[in-house]
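// run 5 | inverse folding | seed 20
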């Protein structure tokens, strides 16, 4: 017999103006994890909001759902799911209030952070959101009372919880974004109105804790819910002539069986990216219908895209590239690509493999370069927006140069000299202080560069240990060998002082003298280690600053050789050029003085414009088409615009902040490049 949920469950979507109103008083229960969003999630949220604000003038933006324990007649609500978004949105409103010049606007923003109170309604003056007890006084003082300058001046070292550190860093990210994107109160006001009236959260609430947890579990479970591909399938198959429907249905279901339902959904996500070349702003179904189904027939979609893309996806995902030559090398590189913990590299890899299935030598070249690019983006901690943008330029070049060969290969897959410099600086830095995923990848990849293939990098138990201990005992040999405290701090967390192990950390063994540590902690029964890096350390007779310095230089040379990090002065695209792509457009250009911007011949504009494109840009676009400067949506000659924003808006067919959207291949925008 099925269980019956006795408590009433309600679900309703609300704009942010209602979410942050006297209807709700949010409390984070003590058993919840602390606030944990980093600059990556916060930056991605702002970019998504700002991008939607720029491109969509009537659609609403869906921020997801939150789950509350709440009685319908009571404002008080325990937050079961949604703490991260509510906290980050509160920081965003604080930054808005701080940024406005108009004092009335500042006060209006503050009411979304704090309830002013209403004696007649029996509502006390208090914050709208209460974090965990240890973090709430800090959050209230700096965010809800909008003391952001004071927050920014705090030394991160004195912040005693991770949540406080995240609050400070995320506030800084949002302040920087607002300073770059908005120059006056009118623009800030329009963005605020968009946030309050067109950005929605779905609130699912029940007065029962048991029901709330059940709802949360169901919402986050991996059931057989209707996927976007199921809806797209009905549209595509239904558009075929009846006599073809059965055959194509069997072909479709065969592909789905090959990948699994979730895997097939990923194929569609990557296919959308190949067509759109931008991060998803609406649902997969909406964007697939708008950008894919409108440009290809149902037969073309299945035969020319889904079949080769699905086969490529399976080979890439499972490291199962098959060829007479170079298959093992390609699959070895795919192993590392799949360890980067994101799939943003998949769309260009799928497109390339589908278009060059029989050129194994070129495939090897491409996958080797792609692994280097993906490693750079991971190691230097680039966020999802930067990653998608970086791969976008590769997709743009692949589309414009479908006949590239190993003799004349793709250029945008190469690292620029600036990227190589950033890569090397990061690798030479404090590796141990990075996230576990990043530092493990770096150590394992380095060991693989130096290995003969005997080591395995799939162990569930993998730890990284310091050779020179983090806290050497006062009485012992370590301080005799390393008497300079600053020198110890400098080398402690760098890669030369780190070794990989396949055992649990032993806090006592960490502080052994070097000889004892090697014998009892680093080496196996045979006196060696399966890892080359650890074996090298075991073979060192002493561990002194000179040994570590030489080792650091040697390991840096290995990285430089294997990942080809020495400057070439031959980047994929001229480093003085700025790129732009989106909505079917792709363009190159550069600033020619303080204000003007030159767009190069051959640049392509979007095929249409959005309703929000200012009328003066609509007219200018028509003029350029009318006089032949733009022919068949392509610039027939170079053209100078009065500003980077004018050029970007006319090319993209939507409102655009050119200083932010024109970017170099490595992601540096016009604004970041000093223009």
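// decoded
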């Amino acid at each position: 017999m099925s269980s019956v949920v006795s408590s009433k469950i309600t679900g309703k979507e609300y704009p942010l103006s209602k979410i942050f109103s006297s209807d709700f008083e949010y409390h984070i229960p003590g058993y919840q994890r602390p606030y944990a969003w980093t600059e990556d999630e916060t930056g991605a949220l702002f970019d998504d909001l700002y991008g939607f604000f720029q491109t969509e003038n009537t659609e609403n933006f869906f921020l997801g759902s939150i789950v509350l324990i709440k009685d319908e007649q009571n404002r008080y609500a325990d937050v079961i799911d949604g703490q991260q978004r509510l906290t980050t949105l509160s920081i965003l409103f604080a930054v808005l209030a701080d940024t406005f010049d108009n004092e009335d606007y500042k006060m209006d923003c503050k009411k979304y952070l704090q309830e002013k109170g209403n004696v007649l309604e029996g509502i006390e003056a208090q914050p709208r959101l209460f974090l965990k007890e240890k973090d709430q006084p800090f959050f209230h003082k700096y965010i809800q009372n909008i003391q952001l300058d004071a927050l920014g001046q705090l030394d991160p070292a004195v912040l005693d919880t991770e949540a406080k550190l995240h609050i400070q860093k995320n506030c800084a990210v949002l302040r920087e974004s607002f300073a770059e994107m908005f120059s006056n109160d009118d623009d800030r006001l329009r963005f605020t109105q968009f946030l309050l009236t067109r950005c929605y959260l779905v609130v699912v609430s029940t007065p029962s804790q048991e029901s709330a947890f059940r709802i949360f579990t169901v919402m986050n479970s991996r059931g057989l819910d209707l996927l976007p591909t199921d809806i797209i399938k009905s549209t595509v198959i239904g558009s075929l002539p009846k006599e073809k429907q059965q055959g194509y249905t069997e072909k479709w279901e065969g592909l789905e069986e090959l990948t699994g339902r979730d895997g097939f959904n990923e194929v569609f996500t990557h296919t959308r990216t190949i067509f759109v070349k931008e991060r998803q702003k609406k649902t997969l179904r909406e964007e697939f219908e708008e950008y894919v189904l409108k440009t290809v027939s149902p037969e073309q979609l299945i035969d020319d895209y889904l079949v080769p893309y699905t086969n490529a996806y399976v080979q890439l995902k499972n490291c199962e590239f098959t060829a007479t030559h170079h298959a093992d090398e390609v699959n070895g590189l795919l192993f590392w690509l799949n360890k980067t913990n994101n799939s943003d590299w998949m769309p260009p890899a799928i497109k390339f493999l589908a278009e060059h299935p029989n050129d194994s030598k070129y495939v090897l070249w491409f996958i080797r370069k792609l692994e280097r690019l993906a490693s750079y983006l991971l190691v230097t901690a680039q966020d999802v927006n930067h990653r998608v943008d970086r791969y976008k330029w590769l997709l743009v070049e692949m589309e414009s140069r479908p006949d590239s060969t190993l003799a004349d290969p793709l250029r945008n897959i190469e690292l620029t000299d600036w990227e190589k410099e950033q890569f090397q600086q990061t690798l030479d830095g404090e590796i141990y202080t990075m996230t576990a995923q990043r530092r493990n990848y770096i150590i394992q990849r380095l060991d693989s560069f130096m290995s003969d293939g005997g080591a395995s990098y799939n162990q569930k138990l993998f730890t990284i240990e310091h050779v020179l201990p983090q806290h050497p005992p006062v009485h012992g040999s370590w301080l005799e060998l390393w008497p300079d405290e600053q020198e110890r701090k400098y080398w402690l967390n760098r890669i030369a002082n780190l070794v990989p192990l396949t055992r649990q950390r032993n806090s006592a063994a960490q502080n052994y003298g070097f000889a004892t540590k090697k014998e009892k902690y680093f080496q196996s029964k045979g006196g060696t280690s399966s890892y080359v890096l650890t074996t090298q350390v075991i073979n060192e007779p002493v561990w002194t600053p000179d040994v570590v310095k030489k080792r650091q230089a040697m390991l840096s040379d290995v990285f430089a050789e294997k990942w080809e990090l020495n400057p070439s002065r031959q980047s994929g695209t001229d480093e003085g050029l700025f790129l732009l792509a989106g909505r079917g457009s792709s363009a190159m250009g550069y600033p020619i003085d303080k204000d003007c911007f030159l767009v190069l011949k051959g640049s392509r504009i979007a095929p249409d414009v959005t309703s929000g494109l200012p009328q003066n840009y609509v007219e200018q676009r028509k003029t350029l088409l009318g006089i032949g400067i733009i022919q068949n949506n392509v610039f027939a000659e170079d053209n100078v615009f009065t500003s980077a924003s004018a050029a970007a808006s006319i090319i993209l067919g939507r409102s655009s902040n050119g200083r932010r959207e024109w970017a170099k291949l490595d992601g540096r925008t016009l604004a970041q490049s000093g223009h």
